[in-house]
Amino acid sequence: MADLPDIDFTLEFPYTRTTGPVIGPFLTGLRDGRILGTRVGDQVICPPVEYDPDSGATVGPENLVEVGPVGTVDAWTWVAEPTSKHPLDTPFAFAQIKLDGADTTMLHAVDAGSIDAMSTGMRVVVRFNEDRVGSVTDVHFVPGEEAAAPSPVDADEDVEIMEHLIGVRIQEPLQPHRQRFLQGLLQKKIIGQRSPADGKVHVPSRGYDAINRVPMSDADDVEVEGRGTVTSFTEITPIQYHGQTETEPYIRCSILLDGADSTIGGVDVRHIPIDEFRVGMRLEVVWRDDISFDDADNRGYGLNEGVYERWESTGEPDVDPELVKEHNF
Fold first, then answer.
1. What are 289-296's contacts with CB under 8 Å, separation 24+?
2. CB 104 within 8 A of CB 42
3. DSSP letters of 61-105?
4. Which residues have CB under 8 Å from 297's CB, separation 6+?
5. Which of 84, 148, 184, 303 fits 189 for a cystine, CB–CB 3.0-4.6 Å?
6. 288: number of Cβ within 10 Å
7. How many helices (H) and strands (E) does the chain have?
8. Is 317 helix (H, G, I), strand (E, B) or coil?
9. Domain boundaries, the chain
10. Residue 215 pairs with which residues in a beta bridge?
11. DSSP letter string over 243-300?
12. Tell me: the pLDDT tens digits for 249-272?
């Protein structure tokens, strides 16, 4: 059997917030082709702040002043392999830049072309992106002192809301027991592992018996049935948020597969009416023809919807819920 690829996916969610009376004008300025700082006492702070860092006193938008567009690099570090979350897709420097007219530094990206072109004390100038929306990523810096006129942007309203995706990329190899479990699913088989300590079958396995603290190997692999008993469930009513694709209520349940001593969890059931669903109900899996593992990881505790088409009733009599209550999850 061919090895499955290593895990490589990005977990992210949208984050939306209001910009406030100071950051809002700052972001609006970036969109409109200006960089603003805050005058606090005898110094100018950029990016601007809403309070005096020494006294904590409120600083309002009336204290905003324009700075730059040229500045001096106070410190820097080179990013040789940018990720999708970085402001540039080619190698660049993150630098602390003291803009002309400011007394503090602003952390931002410098597109220098190569690490050899970067140095502390060098002069850099802002470059405004052609398409700007009112974000700190609307600009970057390049070596030099000559500012280019920003392209006009067709926008009249101030930036009052900022929205971006917060995410983390996860990369790791599939552990051997997980690899064998997924390979089994590709053949429409469910592989568990029998503990050498007490004989209980764990599905899916973690590669060890956590109760008896013993490891399990491929010699402990066993196949269990693609049918079992509902041990617990909940009705999911999707909350509508940005990016939500679910619209209709559905069931999420745990199933004790025949031949197993632990349940698979997080099983979504959409083809059985909610008012007919119950603990003790007997179900069997209907496999997909095109099985996929888009969200495979080493921590799975069930079967995702890339594996099955649906779960349906076997038509068998229900199991007494008292007999499976120890498996409630």
1. 291/185, 291/186, 291/188, 293/4, 293/182, 293/185, 294/9, 295/9, 296/4, 296/7, 296/174, 296/178, 296/182
2. no
3. GGGEEEE-SEEEEEEEEEESS--TTSS-SS-EEEEEEEETT-SS-
4. 7, 9, 170, 172
5. 184
6. 15
7. 2, 20
8. coil
9. 7-168, 174-327
10. 208
11. T----S-EEEEEEEETT-SS-EEEEEE-SS-GGG--TT-EEEEEE-SS---TT--SS-
12. 999 999 999 999 999 998 999 999
Q: Which residues are 269's β-sheet partners?
A: 251
Question: At 108, is the secondary structure helix, strand, or coil?
Answer: strand
**Encoded tokens for 57:** 């006193």
Q: For the segment 20-68, what is each residue's pLDDT rounded down to a tens digit? A: 999 999 999 999 999 999 999 999 999 999 999 989 899 999 999 999 9
Q: Which amino acid makes up residue 100?
A: D
Look at residues 55, 29, 51 and name the one whose alpha carbon lies nearest to residue 38.
51
Report how far residue 293's alpha carbon sits from residue 314's, in angstroms, rounded to the nearest whole number. Answer: 26
d(CA 158, CA 32): 10
d(CA 59, CA 244): 38
End-to-end CA distance of the chain: 34
Whole-angstrom CA distances from 189 to 140, 192, 224 are 53, 10, 8
| Mean residue pLDDT across the chain | 91
Q: What is the pTM of this model?
A: 0.62
Tell me if residue 145 falls in helix, strand or coil: coil
Contacts of 93 (CB under 8 A, 6+ apart): 76, 77, 78, 79, 109, 110, 112, 115, 118
Question: pLDDT for 68-104, tens place per residue?
Answer: 999 999 999 999 999 888 999 999 999 999 999 999 9
Name residue 138's amino acid. Answer: D
> Quick check: 1 pLDDT over 60?
no
Q: Are 264 and 257 in contact (CB under 8 A)?
A: yes
Q: Which long-range contacts (CB under 8 A, 24 or more apart) does 294-298 make?
A: 294/9, 295/9, 296/4, 296/7, 296/174, 296/178, 296/182, 297/7, 297/9, 297/170, 297/172, 298/7, 298/172, 298/174, 298/175, 298/178
Residue 2, pLDDT above cutoff 70? no
Q: How far apart are CA 168 and CA 8, in angstroms?
A: 11
Both tokens assigned to 229? 């008993």
22: helix, strand or coil: helix
